[in-house]
Each structure stands twice: as structure tokens, then as C-alpha cells.
Design brief:
The structure holds 2 protein chains of 2 kinds. Chain A is mainly α. Chain A has helices at 3-26, 37-42, 48-80, 92-106, 114-132, 140-165, 174-179, 187-204, 208-214, 218-223, 228-250, 256-268, 272-296, 305-324. In chain A, α1 (3-26) packs antiparallel against α3 (48-80) and α4 packs across α5. The mean pLDDT of chain A is 88. Chain B contains 9 helices and 12 strands. The mean pLDDT of chain B is 93. Chain B has a single domain (5-252), classed as Rossmann fold (3-Layer(aba) Sandwich). A 6-stranded mixed sheet of chain B has the order 6-7-8-3-9-10, sandwiched between helices. By secondary structure, chain B is of the alpha/beta class. Classes of the chains: A mainly alpha, B alpha/beta. At the A-B interface, α9 and α10 of A face α2, β6 and α3 of B.
Chain lengths: 329, 259
């Protein structure tokens, strides 16, 4: 893809995100026409309270979490050199939830520590995973997936157990941790999430060149001047931060990290310098839209947002597996 | 001034066995072919010269300076490496794969016009311009080999280390690749290639480096080295060397039991 076309694609994605956010802010039990929003806010009309205290933090949180998950998915795929992985499938989401729950069980009052505790949960899960299924060799993609699924299932059981012991002031349920929800969004949670998710995203966006080199294999990346061990260490830390912040805020929203990088690669090709920013933008848009659908489809009831992403992502994952012929990349 | 690449008493041990030992030589420019039986240490030598593996003994000097004093980024501007086993993740186009060779030059800037020029040049040199827009995974083994070589050329390094660059190529492509290697060397680069085919080496090499059981058996011009006695010593079978129309043909003789 040529340069002009690439820039245009990123611009289109940014516009899509803006439009999705506007639409999501205006829709709900109390409808406010998108173009009315500035006037409602300025004149302090009836809807202003809903917008400022409910819709805006929720929409922004959905965008932030979706962007983070998609970006973490893309980075993880680049690092493990296979399009078949994402944070949720590898048990990283479960590790994050466990970290958060353990934090709550010891420090129920210190909610600000949740994202970091979740991040630590992801990091420990990653270390364990890479111990169980070292990267490299013919079957490494499949091995890492199998181990990830195993961890993921095991973690769900632990989450179910821990939940009963933890007095969570915000009443997060097993459904929240395994399927996700933006129901708890407020400005405080948004700020807390952004404080970890945004800086890690900014650094991850700079990994494109190194991940491109890694597409050729670790030896080739070395010959192209990339310090592979340092790259892995940094990237895994960043993925842990991004995933931890996202899961602590909204639970484990599956398949965003798988579906979005795949869609992006279809559109712009494999160059990570394009894939990473595009994945963030598209992940943010699609998650905002998925949340919109989750809270309006069966209104007044609310679906866990992960049911929708899983409904879309599950079949796609099957398709990918069949297409990749279990090679894992 | 120091030669571009020097090996000083290089040695490498793996699992208690010396893969390479006491290998010393110095090369500046030209096309040098590394020959020797399987397991003689050809790939090992190339990996030590590229810095991928650290020697257990001895040093590699690049322009007179030990290799470990270079950063990875500096090394990538000094030498390019074509490995024997190559793999790719994700569906890049052939041109994008060649563009990966430009990454060392893009540490502090995006892709620019110079990159484009180099990529086109590399594709042209390897006769792969027609493949550029195709997905890499749709290419045949021979086509992939040419794209991989183009990627190494696009890196634009003064030293090229090629591990069996003629693998997967048909006879004509083999000739083209070696003619290219020689041309690149004549433009002032140092090209080192590990090969199996003695006759191709006889046709194109300016220098030959024979390895046997991890040791340097001989280093010199094809005229000096392609002699039955030395070949028999290196490969362990008798050879016939036939001079015909200014060309040298090297034929391993039938094994002693005549099968």
C-alpha cells in the first residue's frame, strides 16, 4: 500500500471512531440527537447530566479498553509470530482478573491499585505461559494456544472461587470478569485506566519496525539490528500493562485482540507500522459499537459486551484456525 | 588500513565438541566461497562472522575493531546475512519483504525515497521485479529465494554473508545469483558465500576457503586450490579435475567399490 493511501486509511479509522463515539453518546434509554449534544451541554439542558456522568465516561472507557485490547493483541501476535493469539485466549485476561481479585481481597479499599495488580497478574501469566510453551519451532503456535486455553479455563474456576471470598464494593461478578461490561464506568475509573493504558499504548505504537523485523524470525531480526531479547521483555511488559488496565476496568472482553488485527491486516497488509495504529483505532470503534449494541439491544436489560464480541470472534477464530492449517503462522 | 573482515583464531564449542577451531584469515573485498563437507563448519563460520554467535575463542574484527564493540544497529549497517533456513510470519507482499531489508536504515526516520530506490534496485538485480506485488506465500521456492536475496541486497551493507544462496534454484538461476554475487564484489563489497557445488565455485569464486572438520584447510584462488590432492584431503574421496576450453571441471571419482 502506498503512503498516501496509508495515511488516508488511518484518517478514515479516526473518523469512524469519532462517529462511533458520537452515536454511542447519543443513544440509550434517553435519546439525545448527536448534533444536539453541544447545545445540550452548553445550555445545561435536561440531558446534560446523563451525558456528563453516564455516557461520556462509558464511551471513552469503551474506546480506551477496546483500543488497548486490540493493540495488545496485535503486539502479542507480532511477538509470537502468529495471528492466532490474543490476550483473552492465552489466559492473560484471566490472569488480570485474578490479580485484580487478589488485590481486592487484601486491600478492598484501595481501588486505585486494581489496574497495576491486574497488570502484574498478566505478567506472571505470560511468564508462566512462556515457560510451559517456549516460543520457536514448528508447533510453537499451537502449543502456546493449548497452554493458554488451559490456563484460561483454570483461571475462570479460580475467579469463581475467589469471588465468594472477596467483598467487592462494586459487586463485580464472575460474569463481569469473564464476559466484561462497561457498566461501572465513571470518570475516576476512566482516569485510572487511562493512566496505564495510554502511556503503554504510546510506547507500543513505536514497536512496528522491530516487530516487522521479527516477522522474519529471531535470527533475521538480529541481523537487521534488533535486540530480540530486549524487545520481548519490553513488549511483554507493555502488553501486561495494557491488558491489565483494560481487564481491571471492564473485565475480559474476548476476541477484540484477535478479530481487530486480523481485519486490519486484510485492509492494510502485514506492515506493523500500519497495523498497530490502525488496530488501536478500529478496536476502539468496534468496542464502542459493541457496547452500544450490548446496552440497547435488549433494553432495559444489558448484555455483557463480551457475549457480542465472542459471537463475532468465535466463528472467525475457527475460520482462521482452519485456514492456517494449525501451523500457527 | 585494516582489512574489512578478519578472523583471529576463531573457535566455537557446542555440547562438548569443537564445531570450529583455530580459524584465522583476513579478507577485504572480493567474492570468497566457503567450501567443505557437511558439518565442516561453513554455517558456523558465517554465524560467527555475522556476530549472531559469540566465539568461545578468538575474535572477529570488523575494519580492525572487535565485533562486540559494535552495537546491533551499527552491525546491521555493516553486514547483511542470508540464512539457509528462512521463515516468514504474516502475509507480506514480496516487495514488503524486500523492504524489510531497509529497516536498519529507518531507526530514526520513516520510509523515504532512497529506500524506494534501493528496493527497486535490489529487485532488479535479482530479476525479481515482476514478483514484487505478489504475496510472498504464493511464490515458489525459487522465487522466494530471489526475494530473500533481494532483501539482503536492500540492506545495502558492504559485507554480504550468504549461506547456500543457490539452494532451491534451478541451474540458470544458480548461475545468475553467483554472477550477481561476483558483480557485487567487483563493485567493492566483500561477499562470502557457503556453497556445496565445486563447479559453481570454480566458475565464479575469486577466492576459496576450504573448511574441514572445523579447521581451515586452505585459502586461495581457485587455480591454486582446485587440485585433486587437496580436494581428496578435504572431502575424503578421489577427484578428477578436467581442464576444458579454459574452464575447470571438478568430478568426484566413483567410490572404491565401483557402485
Amino acid at each position: 500500500m502506498i503512503f498516501g493511501a496509508r495515511k488516508r486509511f488511518v484518517l478514515i479509522l479516526a473518523l469512524l471512531l469519532a462517529a462511533s463515539m458520537l452515536l454511542a453518546a447519543s443513544s440509550g434509554a434517553y435519546y439525545i440527537a448527536p448534533l444536539e449534544i453541544p447545545r445540550v451541554l452548553q445550555e445545561g439542558l435536561e440531558g446534560a447530566y446523563v451525558l456528563l456522568n453516564i455516557r461520556f465516561p462509558r464511551v471513552l472507557l469503551a474506546a480506551l479498553v477496546g483500543g488497548s485490547l486490540a493493540l495488545c493483541g496485535a503486539v502479542l501476535q507480532g511477538l509470537l509470530r502468529t495471528p492466532l493469539v490474543e490476550p483473552g485466549l492465552l489466559g492473560l485476561g484471566g490472569g488480570a482478573a485474578l490479580g485484580a481479585l487478589l488485590w481486592l481481597s487484601f486491600f478492598p479499599a484501595l481501588v486505585w491499585g486494581l489496574p497495576a495488580a491486574a497488570g502484574l497478574g498478566v505478567l506472571l501469566t505470560l511468564v508462566l505461559l512462556l515457560r510451559l510453551a517456549p516460543v520457536g519451532g514448528e508447533q510453537s503456535g499451537v502449543r502456546v494456544l493449548l497452554m493458554g486455553l488451559l490456563l484460561s479455563t483454570f483461571f475462570s474456576a479460580l475467579i469463581g472461587l475467589l469471588q465468594f471470598r472477596v467483598g467487592d464494593p462494586q459487586g463485580r461478578s464472575l460474569t463481569f470478569w469473564t464476559l466484561g461490561s462497561f457498566g461501572g464506568a465513571n470518570w475516576e475509573l476512566l482516569a485510572l485506566t487511562a493512566a496505564l493504558a495510554l502511556p503503554s499504548a504510546v510506547v507500543m505504537l513505536r514497536l512496528g519496525r522491530a516487530l516487522n523485523a521479527l516477522s522474519l524470525g529471531e535470527e533475521e531480526a538480529f541481523h537487521l539490528g534488533i535486540g530480540v531479547e530486549a524487545l520481548k521483555r519490553h513488549a511483554l511488559m507493555l502488553v501486561a500493562l495494557g491488558t491489565g488496565a483494560a481487564v481491571a476496568a471492564a473485565g475480559n472482553i474476548a476476541f477484540v485482540g484477535l478479530l481487530v488485527p486480523w481485519l486490519v491486516r486484510l485492509a492494510v497488509g502485514a506492515d506493523h507500522r500500519m497495523v498497530l495504529p490502525s488496530a488501536w483505532l478500529l478496536g476502539a470503534s468496534l468496542t464502542v459499537l459493541a457496547d452500544l449494541l450490548a446496552r440497547t439491544a435488549l433494553s432495559p436489560a444489558e448484555l455483557p459486551v463480551g457475549t457480542l464480541t465472542t459471537l463475532a470472534g468465535g466463528p472467525l477464530f475457527l475460520f482462521l484456525l482452519l485456514k492456517e492449517g494449525w501451523r500457527g503462522g | 588500513m585494516a582489512d574489512r573482515l578478519e578472523a583471529r583464531a576463531l573457535g566455537l564449542r557446542r555440547t562438548g565438541r569443537w564445531l570450529l577451531r583455530q580459524v584465522s584469515f583476513s579478507l577485504d573485498t572480493g567474492f570468497c566461497v566457503i567450501l567443505g563437507p557437511n558439518g565442516a563448519g561453513k554455517s558456523t563460520l558465517l554465524r560467527l562472522l555475522s556476530g549472531e554467535w559469540r566465539p568461545a575463542e578468538g575474535d572477529v574484527l570488523l575494519k580492525g575493531v572487535p565485533l562486540e564493540r559494535y552495537s546491533l544497529a551499527q552491525l546491521a549497517l555493516e553486514r547483511a546475512f542470508l540464512p539457509q533456513q528462512r521463515s516468514l510470519a504474516f502475509a507480506y507482499t514480496a516487495r514488503e519483504v524486500v523492504a524489510l531489508g531497509r529497516l536498519p536504515h529507518q531507526r530514526h526516520r520513516p520510509q523515504n525515497h532512497e529506500d524506494q530506490v534501493r528496493i527497486e534496485w535490489a529487485l532488479e538485480q535479482t530479476g525479481a521485479s515482476g514478483l514484487a506485488q505478489r504475496p510472498y506465500f504464493s511464490l515458489s521456492g525459487g522465487e522466494r529465494a530471489r526475494i530473500d536475496l533481494a532483501r539482503v541486497l536492500a540492506q545495502d551493507a558492504p559485507i554480504l554473508l550468504l549461506d547456500e544462496p543457490t539452494n532451491h534454484l534451478d541451474p540458470r538461476q544458480q548461475l545468475e545469483v553467483l554472477a550477481l554475487a561476483r558483480r557485487l564484489a567487483q563493485e567493492g563489497r566483500l561477499v562470502l558465500a557457503a556453497l556445496h557445488d565445486l563447479n559453481l565455485a570454480a566458475l565464479f569464486a575469486e577466492r576459496i576457503l576450504f573448511l574441514k572438520s572445523g579447521q581451515l584447510a586452505a585459502l586461495g584462488s581457485p587455480d591454486q586450490l582446485l587440485k585433486p590432492a587437496l580436494l581428496q584431503e578435504v572431502y575424503g574421496v578421489p577427484f578428477e579435475v578436467i581442464e576444458q576450453a579454459g574452464r575447470r571441471l571438478v568430478l568426484p571419482a566413483l567410490p572404491p567399490d565401483g557402485q
